[in-house]
Design a protein that fits this description.
Layout: H1 15-29, H2 35-46, H3 56-67, E1 77-78, E2 131-132, H4 151-164, E3 204-205, E4 211-212, H5 215-227, E5 267-268, H6 282-292, E6 297-302, E7 308-313, H7 314-330, E8 333-334, E9 337-338, E10 345-349, H8 355-367, E11 371-375, H9 386-395, E12 400-403, H10 405-410, E13 429-432, E14 456-463, E15 469-475, H11 476-490, E16 497-500, H12 507-519, E17 523-526, H13 529-534, H14 538-546, E18 550-553, H15 555-563, E19 578-581, H16 589-600, E20 610-616, E21 620-624, E22 636-641, H17 642-646, E23 660-664, E24 668-669, E25 674-678, E26 693-698, E27 705-706, H18 710-717, E28 735-743, E29 749-754, E30 758-761, E31 764-767, H19 768-776, H20 780-783, E32 784-796, E33 799-808, H21 814-832, E34 838-843, H22 857-866, E35 873-876, H23 878-881, H24 897-906, E36 913-915, H25 925-930, H26 934-944, E37 949-954, E38 960-965, H27 966-982, E39 991-995, H28 1000-1011, E40 1015-1019, H29 1027-1040, E41 1043-1048, H30 1050-1056, H31 1059-1064, E42 1072-1075, E43 1096-1103, E44 1109-1115, H32 1116-1130, E45 1137-1141, H33 1147-1160, E46 1163-1166, H34 1178-1185, ...
Parallel strand pairs: 6-17, 10-11, 10-12, 12-13, 16-17, 16-18, 18-19, 19-20, 33-34, 37-46, 39-40, 39-41, 41-42, 45-46, 45-47, 47-48, 48-49, 63-64
Antiparallel strand pairs: 1-65, 2-22, 3-4, 5-25, 6-7, 8-9, 14-15, 15-27, 20-21, 21-24, 22-23, 25-26, 26-28, 28-29, 30-31, 32-33, 34-35, 36-55, 37-38, 43-44, 44-57, 50-54, 51-52, 51-53, 55-56, 56-58, 58-59, 60-61, 62-63, 64-65
Helix pairs in contact: 1-2, 2-4, 3-4, 3-21, 6-7, 6-12, 7-8, 11-12, 15-16, 26-27, 27-28, 32-33, 35-37, 39-40
Length: 1518
């Protein structure tokens, strides 16, 4: 097609070729022939006619796709199990589809053109290339590119294949610009779960330098290459407020098209003719025909075989309506009052197959002065949209529903046999109106019906874009005016025959087929939807059989009949004078009209008969094309630039041959009406002549209000359009139609879209229907199941984002679907210049259906937002769509240290420094000296209080399995010491690994080591069921700590040397292993006494959450100082009992378990956390039983209790569990306090007497295991709310509770005696002021003396223990904790009478994510994600190169996994302004958690990179 203007010489295809083509298409659609066979046969048939014709839109799409050929895209990987869709019956007759609620539609609309037969000089300049000519001009005219249409269809397909042949190999890449190609291999989808995935054998180096060796990694690497240059417009400069992250505002493009025409004038329709003798009212007409010509046929109903089952005559309609009116008014009572009074609303519930009963019910209500509210039949309790219908019925005050016997039997029933109450519906009485249930009125009874004037005649329901259903009220006057206007516009005559395929309950089906037909005594042949599904030709056969003069259809009915017309030689459409196309305003109707005419012109169809019309629920019929004999001008088409339309401007397309929209006119204004076009947003200013706006109608025949909704009624039904100067154009109000369009030449109305389908992306507007059309043009028959596609927009980050959901054919492969998706993205990008935010595929037949089989768009959107759509494939493209993110933060040059301190003082901010109580005042120094070495303390206790019990160990049943008094512990320790010196021949200072389960043996072995001068290292024993992952850690600690001997039990010794162990580690390289189960009773000659307090006492090894194994050195001085601080803070004496439910291997857990009881002499009740797995209530029962005032636990223990005992507090109370003894319950943690968990724990166990203020958290880290501990005295912990956005900029901004973006932080207990804390700047290392965020530095006698080793990153941690401030107090030696936090002076007073300083921990520096120049804490993103959907059990995030990876555990069905992808992406964008790069959905329990209950995000990251997570689905967001 050279230039769109040049006429082509069409070669009409011979009829027999057309027949064969149609047969081929049918065979393909019914699955009788393979795609390949079909292509072959079709090519052969059409070889001679190739240069013929081509559907413009298809051509556009193919050309667009050709541009992208080279680019590749990573496939999402998916577990095979979720690919098994529920099977769908594959060979069902064509269903409808569409983007709009009530529409069925076609597979692939063409955007069409036709040739100009002559050019009009009088036409407005912008339209001078609009092409005039009747829709017969079959030159390059649209062809339905669907089976059976006409050869064009086939040709378009051929061309498509020509273009696409070489695309099948690899789907194009839609993530980078058009130019850069990424030459990388495309991996195949992951293999079946359970089969190990093949390793490629070569090491890939990801950008982080982590060598990984696997297939997903290569896929990930490939994704990376594509994502390195996301296609994103450059961000504009704008004012940056330091505190707020401003969203980028899209600046209008200076080159965008602007309207240039003059201001439009109101367009008036012809006047309603006065000469005709109209009946005074519709009921008067009914009475007249019913009494004077009772035998005249009114309505013929057909069954699903197409047989006429019943013909209702006018006499019958009159008598039965009277009977119903009498029954309604006189026979229905409740408590002796009539149930109904005039003006009451009544629901009409009739199936689409029963027009007769519906008509009787409708007229019966009118006669009884009741207001009918026709609604759909609710087939199931969960029908799409039935809840909204309930809202409509409730707001209309409906109490009675009319239905038929058969329909009532089919409704869902309650147990009582009554019709069930549907969700959201008001209680209804159901009345069956079949003849036998009605009462014949007495002879002298006459209805009082006054059916004139402003009273409401009926209410028609309308579903809006958001899914809410409203009722449009139509008054008696409007009803009459509408019937008269339609009669005049369509030239209806008495006793004409009309075939109606539409829904007779609403819209054109009701106006023509139930109301206007009665006014003119017409005969309506009503064709049910079910018959159309079985036999799409039925309406044409009925037109032929009944010699119908008019037919009322939608484009899909024409399209279907094209598919099925083979072999029908004898049909003739010559009787038709009007074929009214009710959805003529849709972008795809034009191709149906043209294709239909093309095929049926040879069967008597005259071109001028096709009459598209436009209507809306509010304005009823807006415009309709008239045949020339009724004075209509010749039809027109306009080829408009898509880009211009997106700015609301009409431009005839000149440069871009591809992105055009071809629209046909929908005729002239209705008689008696005036039309104008107003701006869509803001005040209703008149548009210019070349501007698209909303069409408004002023007429007596429009709806009058939304029932019961005054606010929006005023806006829609009483609009007063104004000129640019602000003067009203008329004293009468106009009604907004919800249709977007313009007035073209010859005063014809053109519609380019609906307000409901409008999506505003940035500053441009796009129409959902147009995008559906483009998507359908990408190989429609092959992939999309029956063309069912929904397009809608969702608001994310203050802008509309386009979502496209399509049903895929049941036999579509993973490869097909991914290829189709990537090509749809390109086609839309190329033709509409807009990005699709999310593209989802659902299994066939799973999109919610509208009453007549179309797609229920608002319901689909609702399901998408609720995560209930259950797609089987999803592709998100937030990188390309979201262009309004705030600017990445540029780090400001730092202020110098000295000016900063001066600044703080000037601002009245004190330096953020705080300390616990002074140790010197608290106890005499003799005792401190005496208690300097723990071995001395134990010997002293064994001597002075030998039988004082120190430890009780409980098992899962709560029984004491072992105890230790002072003397027992001393003797056990002596035995161990003897064994170490004699058996293992160790010398002083050797390191010994203690590999014990939690218990007294571990404690005895620890003191045994100290007794002989060895350095103990406690190690968690390997898990017998999970040796592969736990044993290497044990081995590593033993090696890294240079242990010369391993002390353990017999059972563990056997495990360490077992065959299974040999499979994971080299068992020959273990040092000496001694079991201490039965060592001989021996005393040591003398207990080792260290020469100085600074000698190493023990090594404390632990793995950080970032996966680094670090061992810290604890001297004897630090060990006793730690015990002393804890003793003072918790007031521990020999008479006290405390309960400990912690792991005894590192940090504060180890100190409380092994050290404190010996130092302070209190009794410790030891509860190993592992035992809680078999008895959750063990710890709380122990606290209650031993009346412990002080108890310690970990977050994982608290979580187990909260989840496991939530419903059992009553049972525990019965068992006598009472927690009122507890003064403090402390969670031992090295992280930000988890407020939600501690609060729910407090709330839950309040019933068992747990005091509200008892629960608190501690804070410690590697450099100092106990910095804060609530203790028994001092003020309660305080909570503040900080602005999460300020935290990202390393600032603390205190806000009120409940303000947006607020994050609650609780202080981590009180600073321990002897501990000093200061907040230092992370980079300048200068001191910061009060309430400033920085790194927490600590100085205290119990700081660790240094790292023994950091396995992983030695160099980084050299200065952790000996840091000095860069200014201010530069003498003190501090240890850096590696945690961000701030100090805040509160109004509370300490025990010392000073104002209390609270320390708030925000999170670990190592864990933070640096993204877009800001610092994010993973927990904040994870909290948002977990809230996004109820099936998300747990979540962890990490970065990989510059991508944010979100791993979510799915607690639900695998089929629902893909619902999470969009929700996760949305919530992270909304709340954190971050684009998620990869969403990984895994099974519950995959995210690794350590013994403290902290997520091991780095382990997870390594598992992801090495492809060891066995994910359910991995989605790469483009």
């Amino acid at each position: 097609m050279a230039d769109r203007g040049c006429p082509l010489q069409p070669m009409p295809l011979p009829a027999e070729v057309r027949e064969s083509l149609a047969e081929l298409e049918l065979e393909l659609s019914e699955g009788d022939i393979t795609q390949k066979g079909y292509e072959k046969k079709k090519a052969k048939l059409l070889a001679r006619y190739i240069p013929l014709i081509q559907d413009v839109h298809t051509e556009a799409v193919q050309a667009a796709l050709a541009k992208y050929k080279e680019r590749k895209m990573p496939l999402p990987s998916k577990r095979r199990s979720i690919l098994v869709h529920s099977s769908v019956e594959t060979c069902t007759p064509p269903d409808t589809s569409s983007a709009s609620e009530d529409e069925g539609s076609l597979r692939r609309p063409g955007r069409l053109t036709s040739t100009p037969l002559q050019s009009h000089s009088s036409v407005e300049p912008w339209l001078d290339r609009v092409i005039q000519g009747s829709s017969t001009s079959s030159s390059a005219s649209s062809t339905s590119s669907h089976p059976g249409g006409r050869p064009a269809a086939a040709l378009a397909g051929l061309v498509a294949h020509a273009h696409i042949a070489d695309l099948h190999s690899a789907p194009p890449d839609v993530t980078t610009g058009l130019v850069e190609y990424s030459p990388c291999e495309r991996p195949q989808p992951a293999s079946v779960r359970g089969v190990p995935r093949g390793c490629s054998g070569r090491l890939l180096d990801t950008s982080g330098g982590v060598p990984v060796n696997s297939r997903v990694s290569s896929k990930i690497q490939q994704l990376l290459n594509t994502l390195k240059r996301p296609k994103r417009p450059p961000l504009k400069e704008f004012f940056v407020d330091d505190m707020e992250e401003l969203l980028e505002v899209q600046q209008p493009d200076p080159n965008q098209p602007k309207p240039e025409g003059s201001q439009m004038v109101v367009l008036k329709g012809e006047p309603l003719s006065l000469g005709t003798p109209w009946p005074p009212s519709l009921l008067a007409a009914l009475q007249r025909w019913g009494t004077m010509q009772p035998k005249a046929p009114c309505l013929t109903a057909l069954d699903t075989t197409g047989k006429a089952v019943y013909t209702l005559t006018y006499g019958k309609l009159w008598s039965r309506s009277l009977k119903l009116a009498y029954t309604l008014l006189n026979k229905l009572t409740s408590k002796n009052e009539p149930l109904l009074k005039p003006g009451d609303r009544v629901a009409l519930v009739f199936p689409n197959s029963d027009p007769v009963m519906f008509m009787v019910a409708f007229y019966g209500c009118l006669l009884a002065e009741l207001v009918p509210v026709p609604i759909e039949v609710p087939l199931t309790k969960k029908d799409a949209g039935s809840q909204q219908i309930g809202f409509l019925l409730g707001s209309c005050g409906v109490t009675l529903a009319l239905t038929t016997d058969a329909c009532q039997k089919g409704l869902p029933k309650a147990q009582t046999g009554e019709v069930a109450t549907f969700k959201g519906w008001p209680p209804l009485n159901w009345l069956v109106i079949d003849g036998k249930h009605l009462t014949k009125p007495p002879k002298d009874w006459h209805p009082l019906a006054q059916d004139e004037g402003a009273g409401t005649a009926y209410i028609e329901y309308k579903t809006s874009k958001e899914g809410s259903t409203v009722g449009v009220t139509v008054s008696h006057a409007s009803l009459l005016a509408q019937c008269r206007a339609l009669t005049q516009a369509c030239g209806y005559l008495e006793a004409e025959t009309l075939t109606n395929v539409l829904d007779f309950k609403r819209d054109a089906g009701l106006w023509h087929g139930v109301l206007t037909s009665v006014m003119n005594k017409m005969h309506v042949i009503s064709i049910p939807y079910a018959l159309m599904k079985v036999n799409p030709l039925s309406w044409i056969q009925k037109v032929c059989l009944y010699k119908a003069q008019t037919a009322l259809v939608k484009s899909r009915d024409m399209h279907w009949s094209l598919l099925a017309q083979r072999g029908q030689r004898d049909v003739s459409l010559s009787s038709l004078r009007m074929l009214i196309v009710a959805d003529g305003a849709n972008p795809w109707s034009i191709s149906s009209c043209d294709a239909f005419l093309n095929v049926f012109q040879s069967r008597g169809l005259r071109p001028e008969v096709i009459c598209p019309c436009a209507s809306s629920p509010e304005a009823l019929t807006v415009a309709i094309r008239r045949p020339p004999d009724l004075g209509g001008p010749p039809p027109r088409k306009a080829v408009l630039s898509m880009n211009g339309l997106s700015y609301g401007v009409i431009r005839v397309d000149t440069e871009e041959k591809l992105s055009v929209l071809t629209v046909q006119d929908v005729g002239q204004v209705m008689p008696g009406a005036s039309i104008c076009v107003v701006k869509m947003d803001g005040a209703p200013y008149l548009c210019k002549t070349d501007e698209v706006g909303e069409i408004c109608v002023d007429s007596n025949a429009t709806g009058t209000a939304y029932y019961g909704l005054l606010g929006i009624t005023k806006n829609v039904f009483e609009t007063v359009p104004v000129t640019a100067g602000g003067a009203p154009i008329s004293d009468r109000p106009f009604t907004r139609t919800g249709l977007l369009g313009f007035i073209g030449p010859d005063n014809l109305v053109f519609i380019v879209g609906k307000l409901d389908g409008l999506m505003v992306v940035g500053v441009r507007r796009h129409n959902a229907d147009d995008i559906v059309a483009t998507a359908l043009a990408v190989e429609p028959m092959k992939f999309v199941y029956r063309g069912r596609i929904a397009v809608f927009s969702v608001r994310v980050l203050h802008d509309d984002r386009i979502v496209l959901v399509a049903e895929q054919r049941p036999d579509a492969s993973e490869e097909d679907s991914f290829q189709w998706m990537s090509r749809v993205l390109q086609a839309i990008d190329s033709i509409h210049q807009v990005g699709v935010y999310c593209l989802a595929l659902v299994p066939a037949n799973t999109l919610p259906k509208a009453p007549l089989g179309g797609v229920h768009v608002s319901e689909a959107k609702q399901r998408f937002l609720e995560g209930m759509l259950h797609p089987c494939n999803v592709l998100m493209c937030p990188h390309t769509c979201v262009t309004n993110l705030p600017k990445p933060r540029q780090k400001q040059p730092e202020v110098g240290p000295a000016s900063m301190i001066v600044g703080n003082l000037v601002a009245g901010k004190r330096i953020a420094q705080a300390s616990g109580r002074e140790l010197a005042h608290l106890e005499d120094s003799d005792q401190a000296r005496k208690f300097l070495f723990l071995p001395d303390v134990l010997q002293w206790r064994a001597h002075t209080t030998p039988d004082h019990p120190l430890f009780l160990l409980l098992n899962a049943k709560g029984t004491v399995t072992s105890t230790a008094t002072c003397v027992q512990l001393h003797r056990k320790a002596e035995r161990v010491a003897a064994a170490l010196t004699e058996k293992a021949r160790l010398s002083i200072g050797d390191h010994v690994a203690l590999v014990y389960p939690p218990g007294v043996d571990l404690i005895a072995a620890f003191y045994g080591c100290l007794y002989c001068g060895c350095v103990p290292v406690t190690v968690r024993p390997p898990h017998p069921q999970n040796l592969a992952t736990t044993l290497p850690t044990v081995k590593m600690i033993v090696e890294v700590s240079k242990s010369a001997c391993v002390l353990t039990t017999q059972a563990i010794m056997r495990l360490l040397k077992s065959k299974e162990a040999a499979a994971t580690v080299d068992v020959r390289t273990w040092p000496t292993i001694l079991d201490t189960d039965d060592i001989p009773k021996k005393k040591v000659t003398n207990v080792f006494r260290p020469p100085s307090p600074d000698v190493l006492a023990y090594l404390d090894f632990s793995v950080s959450t970032t996966g680094i194994l670090a061992g810290v050195k604890m001297s004897h001085a630090a060990t006793s100082a730690l015990c002393r601080s804890i003793k003072l803070q918790c007031e521990l004496y020999p008479s006290r009992q405390i309960a400990i439910c912690l792991d005894p291997y590192c940090g504060l857990g180890f100190a409380l378990w092994c050290l404190c009881s010996v130092y302070s002499g209190h009794q410790s009740v030891l509860v190993p956390p592992l035992e809680l797995e078999s008895n959750v209530s063990l710890w709380l029962s122990a606290v209650s039983q031993y009346k412990a005032r002080v108890t310690f636990c970990s977050y994982s223990v608290m979580e187990m209790c909260t989840k496991g005992l939530g419903a059992q507090t009553g049972v525990l109370r019965m068992k006598g569990v009472n927690l009122s003894c507890v003064r403090t319950c402390m969670v031992v943690a090295e992280e930000r306090p988890r407020i939600a968990l501690t609060q729910s724990f407090s709330k839950l166990f309040k019933d068992l007497g747990l005091p509200a203020r008892a629960v608190s958290t501690t804070f410690g880290c590697r450099v100092n295991v106990a910095i804060c501990l609530q203790g028994t005295a001092g003020p309660d912990p305080t909570t503040v709310y900080v602005d999460m956005r300020a935290l990202r900029h390393d600032r603390v901004r205190l806000v009120e509770r409940g303000s947006p973006h607020s994050l609650p932080l609780t202080e981590s207990g009180k600073i321990l005696p002897g501990v000093k804390v200061i907040i230092a700047h992370t980079e300048t290392k200068g001191p910061l002021g009060d309430s400033h965020l920085g790194e927490i530095w600590v100085s205290s006698p119990h700081n660790a003396t240094g790292y023994y080793t950091v396995h992983g990153e030695e160099a980084l941690h050299a200065d952790h223990f000996s840091a000095r401030l860069s200014f201010g107090d530069t003498q003190t030696i501090w240890a850096r904790t590696g945690y961000l936090g701030f100090l805040r002076r509160t109004e509370l007073t300490d025990a010392s009478g000073e104002r209390h300083d609270a320390l708030y921990v925000v999170g670990s520096l190592d864990e933070t994510l640096e993204l877009r120049g800001m610092r994010y804490h993973p927990i904040d993103i994870e909290t948002s994600v977990i809230r996004a959907h109820r099936s998300i059990a747990e979540c962890a995030v990490f970065t990989w190169t510059n991508l944010l990876v979100v791993v979510v555990e799915l607690d639900g069905l695998e089929q629902d996994a893909l619902d999470l992808v969009a929700l996760v992406t949305n919530v992270v964008l909304e709340e954190h302004h971050l684009v998620v790069g990869v969403v990984v959905i895994v099974d519950p329990g995959v995210i690794p958690i350590n013994s403290r209950g902290e997520k091991q995000r780095m382990h997870l990251r390594d598992g992801f990179l090495a492809d060891q997570l066995d994910p359910i689905y991995v989605a790469y967001n483009m």
